Amino acid sequence: MSNRLLGEKRKFIRSFDGALALLLGLGVVIVLSLILAVPALFVPKDSVWYVIINTAPLQFGLIGLYLVFMRKAKIDYFASVGLKKPPTLAGLLIPPVVFVCIFATLLACTAYADLLSLTGYVTPGTADGTAVLDNLTANNAGEVVLYTVGIALLPAFGEELLFRGLLLNGTKKIGTVFAVLLNGALFALYHMNPDQLIHQFVLGVVLAYFVLRTGSLWVGIIGHFSNNAIALIFEFTRFDFELAIPDRAVYALAVPVVLLFLAGVTLLADAVTGNIRNNLFVRLFRGQKRGGAAAARADTGGAAFVGRDANDLRYRAEYDAAVGELYAKKTWVPLPPHNTADPVSVTEAREAADAEYNHRVAAQIRSKRTLAIVILAVTAGAYALMWLIAFVMGVMEGAGITVPGL
């Protein structure tokens, strides 16, 4: 093993890296939110600076976390998350996909809002007319630019680097479906906005799938910016409409419409990237299953290595990193000297040492992944708790209960 492997930057992100970064991101959000709560008390909620104070530092904090974390973990800043890869055709398709997503989730959001109303929940600020998004007003072009930067541009970079960058790249080896659904769920909980839970979950799934298939984070950044920019346009123009269909139809069609939309998104993403044969829905329609060596690798999770044949491209990078860590810790298996008289015993000893070495590498990878799952579970629980707190505050406001200082 050479020092080159230990010194160069990795061009991949492990599950442990993604889980730890997500936990650190939660800490950044909590700390900055508490700090920014003080100056926000002295700025009118209908001011553009209130939005800037509550968004810009948080997003710069996430971007800073990304840069510091990648440097400490010796991971390539840009190549590892696909920032060096241009979005090409997918970048042109993602804005209209995001626009359709708003209307594809409309029935589900309507049905979900009815369920929320049964609990007495109201959007925080609607009772006294202080809800931020209900008071967006721009007096000049400068304020429009500031709103766009604070609400659309910065989150498109900060949140995408965290969710579709670190988290998605760290969990994609576990499985595409798991990584995409987890990404959408944590993305929705992160916003702590019970009103938009459904839309944010579906949007997170769509962006994660497109980024995963294209290998370019720019697709996620463009899509995220498009979604927030469309929301800004709706707010500035006071765009609103009501569904002129019976409630029964809303409840009956809510889930099927979302599933149909997601199926169309996966087909589009796979068609653009030339991966249509491996599309989940295509395989289900044809009755195909993953078999052979691919299924065996999926079952082992990349932890089973035989001799020095651990050259599966999907896990080779992780294998090399584990080898590098063992080498750095001086925990390799010592081999007999080359001048041993019996060449047979030397060969047997080297084979035994090689097998033991691979066993240690596999054990280290398994322990890292187990720790990653624990960290992900703890972090997901923390995000869910914060979302639940936001929900309880909305229920309390609907009941007319006020909490001093909030």
Q: How many structural domains in the coordinates? A: 1
Taken in chain order, the helices and strands follow as: HHHHHHHHHHHHHH
Oligomer: single chain
State the end-to-end CA separation: 58 Å
Structural class: mainly alpha
* Strand-residue proportion: under 5%
User: How helical, in percent, are the residues?
Assistant: 55-70%
What is the number of strand segments? Answer: 0
Estimated radius of gyration: 25 Å
Report the biggest beta sheet as strand number plus sense, adding barrel if it closes: none
Architecture overview:
- 70% of the residues lie in helices and 0% in strands.
- The termini are far apart.
- It has 14 helices and no strands.
- Helix 13 (313-328) packs across helix 14 (343-398).
- It has helices spanning 3-7, 15-40, 48-72, 88-104, 106-118, 141-171, 176-190, 197-214, 217-236, 247-272, 280-286, 292-300, 313-328, 343-398.
- By secondary structure, the chain is mostly helical.
- It has one domain (7-299, 372-398).
- The radius of gyration is 25 Å and the shape is globular.
Write the layout of secondary structure elements.
Layout: H1 3-7, H2 15-40, H3 48-72, H4 88-104, H5 106-118, H6 141-171, H7 176-190, H8 197-214, H9 217-236, H10 247-272, H11 280-286, H12 292-300, H13 313-328, H14 343-398
Helix pairs in contact: 2-3, 2-6, 2-14, 3-6, 4-8, 4-9, 4-10, 5-10, 6-7, 6-8, 6-9, 7-8, 8-9, 8-10, 13-14
